[in-house]
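Appendix B. Raw example, untouched.
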Amino acid sequence: MAADETEKARGKRAALCFAAIAVLLGLPLWWKTTETYRASLPDAHIARLDVLAFQLTVPIAVVFAKGSLPAAQQRRLPFADTREEETPLNRKPWVSSDRPW
């Protein structure tokens, strides 16, 4: 019986030592290999951008299909440049002219 108890105590110590080694070696290794690289930011340069005058111009084209708006609504839209243009639509559901697949 004394041999069984010493074997159980030895098994517990071995398991605790294995767990301690896994935590002491594995945790720092995992931490180091999974950390994200953080580059330093040019704080002075970013602070100077705050006073920079910036204006962004984006050309926008609004397209209405013929008959999609009543004439009264079309007149109320504030367009500076209006142009009416017919655009034929390709009714084929595929790009190739041979066959769809």
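End of appendix B.
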